[in-house]
Amino acid sequence: MAFVLPLACAAPAREGVRAKGGGDAPTSADSAAASSVSLRDSDGRGATLSSVIGGRPSLVSFWAPWCEACVRELPVLENLSRAVAPCGGAVVGVAVGEKPDAIASFARARALTYPQLTDEPFVLADALGQRRIPATVVFDRAGRVVFTGEALDARATAALSRALGDAPAATACALP
């Protein structure tokens, strides 16, 4: 199965989600600051991105349940998560503008097993320059942003594959 979805969010504008525009790619300092932003996991407990990805190459998907393009990506992200876990990688969902209990119910109803965090006040999204959803950010094992893009596509999975190739556990690991 290929992990490519040519999607663009057609969801209506919503408070806090801004039109794509301005902003440079995050710097190393931005990446470090972003990884320590206080978020909530799906149980409502405090978490940081760095505590969830734990030094693993990771693909982080920013999404919301009202965004149809985002919801279409969820099964693909679930499959990608299962594929990268044995290679030492991770997939993490970050729901923007949503409460943890709503995301927990939504994820449970769709049998999503990869970690879901909530960025209700858009702090992490802003720190990483994400102004539109769906959005994809890939981190290497050092926690540096190595890719930013919109919907999950071949460029995002290639960036994750390269990051996994640099990880010790990824020997002989190839993404489908």
Molecular structure report:
- The protein has 176 residues and is an alpha/beta fold.
- It has a single domain (28-167), classed as Glutaredoxin, CATH 3.40.30.10.
- The protein contains six helices and seven strands.
- It has helices spanning 28-35, 49-53, 68-84, 100-109, 123-127, 154-165, and strands spanning 39-41, 46-47, 58-63, 90-96, 116-119, 135-139, 145-149.
- It has a seven-stranded mixed beta sheet.
- The radius of gyration is 15 Å and the shape is globular.
- Residues 1-24 have low confidence and may be disordered.
Fraction of residues in β-strands: 15-25%
Largest β-sheet summary: 7 strands, mixed
Q: Give the averaged pLDDT, no decimals.
A: 81
Question: From the coordinates shown, what is the CATH architecture?
Answer: 3-Layer(aba) Sandwich
